[in-house]
Amino acid sequence: MVSQTLQTDTVSAAPLCTDWRAALADAVHDPAELCRLLRLDPSVAAAAERAADGFPLLVPRPFIGRIRPGDPQDPLLAQVLPRGAELAESPGFSADPLGEAQATVAPGLLCKYQGRSLMVTTGRCAVHCRFCFRRHFPHHASPRTLADWEPAMRRLAAERSIHEVILSGGDPLTVPDEQLARLARRLAQIPHLSRLRVHTRLPVMIPRRVTDELLGWLRGTRLSPVVVVQVNHPAEIDTAVAAALGRLVDAGIPVLNQAVLLRGINDRIDVLAQLCERLADLRVMPYYLHQLDPVAGTAHFQVPEPTGIRLIAQLRARLPGYAVPRYVREIPGQTSKLVLA
Ligand SMILES: *Cc1c(COP(=O)(O)O)cnc(C)c1O
Ligand code: SF4
Fold first, then answer.
1. What is the pLDDT of residues 68-124, one digit of tens each?
2. Is 100-339 in CATH node 3.20.20.70?
3. Which of 127, 256, 270, 310 is least surrounded by CB atoms within 10 angstroms?
4. What is the pLDDT of residues 299-333, one digit of tens each?
């Protein structure tokens, strides 16, 4: 009796913050269900089942709602549907092409570039992007509790040249706001830190993730917040996503976008121009267009660099300078990402 009462209280006390968590938990894992929802041939599901090996299908329902039913070539579906090509080995494509293992300076803490450090906040994501550069990352080794993070905190405290911490993952916004607020408070105790950046796809995948609690801790910390989202195709932005991004910007938080250049998804000038223009309309600044990192299982998404360079030149001829992203590639051992155009 007593425990039932307690449970009821817990649920009714926090209906809003559990809402996005319900959407996260309710994401589709089963290729057969995805194909049923999208009226795709069951053979697509069977192929996805075989290809998902080791990196399962995961798509939240609000994103599924933006995929055109009955179209196996849909550019949003292509980002999330496992295909046989993932199993093919390609020369030059490996599990850790970016040398992230080498850049790990404390559990969960990557330090590659001067002045900023990246925390692999969690291995969990709202979606599994088939082209993900961390699809083989050893997430089980990352810290979970604030106590687990202490070695990383000590390292950050000792490294006075670091002014910015990037919460990455996985997706840091899969972590509840109370925990993120605690993490932000702990980071704010390190005097030489001045900025906190969040790399996330959640406002796009599950727009209701942009809660008052999230805005509260982002605005409440002493550190200047920056949010970097990932939108690869204009069809990812519906009215709910536009509103979620607007809430972040209205809260005074700079919002930037990074996209990955993906074959058959956004490697056409009309698609890229529409994406950049829509983002600018929403006050989200296109930041990077990434050349695909050569991660095993993703070779079929690769666009040749000369094509990317040409696309950027075409964008520059059409759009205001602030709406043109930098086309970059990551090369291990360099002092920054290499700007290709
Ligand atoms: C990309 C990246 C960053 C951030 O680079 P910016 O150019 O500042 O956006 C930081 N750390 C690591 C390990 C990265 O891969
Ligand atoms: S959300 Fe980011 S980390 Fe997660 S699968 Fe997609 S690209 Fe990878």
1. 999 999 999 999 999 999 999 999 999 999 999 999 999 999 999 999 999 999 999
2. yes
3. 270
4. 999 999 999 999 999 999 999 999 999 999 999 99
169 Cβ below 6 A of ligand 2 = yes
Burial class (CB in 10 A: 0-12, 13-18, 19+), 192: exposed
In the chain, ranges of CATH 3.20.20.70 domains: 100-339
Say if residues 55 and 297 touch (Cβ distance below 8 Å). yes
The three-class DSSP label of residue 226 is strand
pLDDT in tens, 206-223: 999 999 999 999 999 999
Q: Do residues 275 and 234 lie in contact, with contact meaning Cβ atoms separated by under 8 Å?
A: yes
**Three-class secondary structure of residue 340 per DSSP:** coil
Say what the pTM is.
0.94
Whole-number Cα distances in Å, 53 to 76, 262, 328: 21, 21, 30
3-state secondary structure 272-306: HHHHHHHHHHCCCEEEEEECCCCECCCHHHCCCHH
| Pocket lining: 262 vs ligand 2, CB cutoff 6 Å | no
Q: How far is the CA of 336 from the centre of ligand 1 (A)?
A: 7
Residue 281: both structure tokens together? 């309309």
Supply 170's token pair. Answer: 């996985």
Q: Tokens at residue 158, please?
A: 């000792």
The rounded distance, in Å, linking the Cα atoms of 336 and 246 is 30
Contact, 271 vs 234, CB < 8 A? yes
Closest by CA to 99, choosing from 116, 112, 117, 114, is 112
